[in-house]
Amino acid sequence: MPARSPIAKGRPLLGQLLLKAGLLTKEQLQEALRAQAEQKNYVPFEQILIDGKVITQAQLNAVLDEYQKKHRLGGILVEMKAITEEQLRQALQEQQKAGLRLGDTLLKLNFVSERQMKQALCKQFGATFVDLDTLAIDRSLAHLISKSYAQAHRVIPIARTEQGLTVAMDDPADVEVVEELETSTGHPVEVLTSTYAAFQRAFLRAYADAAPAAPTPPPGAIRPQPTPPPAAPATDASAIKERDAAVQALGELEGRHAETARSLGELQAAHQALVAEREAGAQTLLTLETRHAETERALAELRAAHEALRMEREAQAPGPDTAAPEELEALRRERDATAEALRELTARHAETERALEELRGAHEALLTERDAGAAPLGELEARRAEAERKLAELTATHEALRREREAAARALRELEERHARVLSAVQTTQESTRQEREASAQRLREAEASRDATARSLAELQASYAEVAREREAGARKLAELQAAHDALLEEREANARAVRELAARTLGELQAAQDTLRQERAKLAALEAAHSALRREHEAATRGRRV
Questions:
Q1: How far apart are CA 99 and CA 102, in angstroms?
Q2: I want to staple 149 with a disulfide (CB 3.0 to 4.6 A). Which of 1, 57, 183, 245 is the partner?
Q3: Model confidence over 157-180: pLDDT tens digits?
Q4: How many CB atoms lie within 10 A of CB 32?
């Protein structure tokens, strides 16, 4: 069986594709791999070939396009729902850093199990995934593939039919081994594959005449911890039962490991959802605080405008009475209009107070439900959104009220200016106008009192926002608890791995002890057979003596 060079054994799949396309020789491939190994930082294999003018970018694109038209490992795993698009992107980034193959990178990150990876490789390269433990192996074919070659390249002959030779390979992506087997045997080769543990057991069954070393994984491959094969096949029934029990226990542990990996994936997804929810809550709280600050500023401006209007009104003084009756009548009409505007303003302010009361009631109900723990988080968020909407409506109402008050203040200032001119002509109406002005001031003071009530309501709303912040902190604590659960799962997985190694060690020790016992029994049997032969010879000699 021809042997490959150490460099050719570990070369990337791209090199195999370029060799098959006739764009690269084996010498050029080895030189490019040496150059890549000498780089301090990881440089892609194809970049070294292009920089060395071995191939062009157009030739590389043509080979990659032809390969990608068939299958891509990442796309197959996504189609199988073994990984997500996000996990594939993470694996590709890690692959660029570590320089491993994509499959080995996914196994290293625990995104897929070994069985899922092997099934995807079978789909990619047209191989078949089987259970080698239940498959019959024709041991007479061991002469077709030497044990050293099978051990080095992780291949086992299984059967030979009219259609060709069936082999089991640990790495179905190693297309060069398939080509070498077809060349050396002269038969088409059908490839089967299975898990690494099943491959080891099948290797022992196929080459059981001597104690082979465990098949060596390729550099950078992520493999389960191998169990060294025994020196000779055990024929003792109890030893076989113990081995089968150990194999079954190992399978159960692999299943638990896969379940733990799935649980870890679910916990990671829940962790990401909680992080997104916490960020959304923080953004919402920031928006509410911004709106509250804007409302406070608007109220301050309104209070300042009212104070200025009040001081301006108090500073005005009455004049002599020289107005005509027509102007006095016009003044009365304007005064009535101003009084009507103030009444409308008061009504709108009362409506604003009612809206604030409704908001306060909704907030108190929200606090009650939160303290009782009856309302789910979704309903709490809906109520908070309703409170935000009402706050926005209240802010808009306040803005409209401020504009109307500014308009009323302007109209009032104009009225007072005209009033001052009329008072200079109409001395007899001075007292009544002053009383009306004081009544207007009283209404404005009442409006200011209502604004103070509005400010208190907003202060209560701010307190509710502080309560929401405390709830966000509770969510952060829950996230920490989930992280602790995640760490516990990791510790359990490590404990499972230690249990597998301990079980394998115990099984090996028991098998070796059984083999030692078997060898001792065989030695005793040989001694008994020798003694029996000696007695038989003596008996035959005695018989011949009697005959003589």
A1: 9
A2: 1
A3: 999 988 889 999 998 888 888 888
A4: 25
